[in-house]
Amino acid sequence: MNRVEIHENKSKLWLLFILLALIEVSFLIPIALYFLGPAGSIDLTLFLLSIAIVLTVGWALSKCLARILCKSPYLIFEREFITIFPVPQQPMKILIRDIDGVIPYVLQNQRYIGVLLKNEEERLENVSPRVKRIAKISKSAGFPAFNIHLNYIAREDLQAVMERFEAIGMPLGEETAKSRSQF
């Protein structure tokens, strides 16, 4: 099997970035009016609230821009490995023989493929604390520890993902075949 890299769909991220930028600009206006406008034109409470929102949205803008500029793939299929990125810039290689199965599921209109591992507890010991925390949250909610978020994948690449899972002997079943037509 050739190496297949699946990249994240950046169009939704660009839309989010534009929306956040508009929110940022709209809350920069009261800050500018506080300093440049006539005295008392902007209340101190609105000024402080605007600063808090500008800082929060600025942080979200930086995270969104980092994901847009990220060049690493979202998912990699190789002959013996599947590489997933539970956290950007922290790849996790999973041996295909260590995969016990895959489960497609939908949670609040978000589509996922859960990857079940034979030695999940051992695997969790060797990951970063951030990945471990995400896996623990997933498991406590009753889902597999490691998941592939299908809404992050471009529609053109989604069929390749489904075919690769079928090629390694992990068909995603009828449930996913029905939802494939919705993509």
Count of individual domains: 2
Rg over alpha carbons:
21 Å
Q: Into which percent range does the helicity of residues fall?
A: 40-55%
Strand order of the largest sheet: 1-2-3-4
Strand content: 15-25%
Extract low-pLDDT stretches: 174-183
Mean pLDDT: 84
Summed up, the helix count is: 6
- Principal-axes geometry comes out as elongated
Order of helices and strands: EHHEEEEEHHEHH
Structural class: alpha+beta
Euclidean distance between termini CA atoms: 25 Å
* Tally of strands: 7
Major sheet attributes? 4 strands, antiparallel
Description of the molecule:
The chain folds into two domains: 8-69; 75-180, no CATH class. The protein is an alpha+beta fold. α1 runs antiparallel to α2. Helices cover 50% and strands 22% of the residues. Mean pLDDT is 84; it is low at 174-183. A hairpin with a 2-residue loop joins β3 (81-87) and β4 (90-95). The protein is built from six helices and seven strands. The chain crosses the membrane at residues 12-36, 42-61.
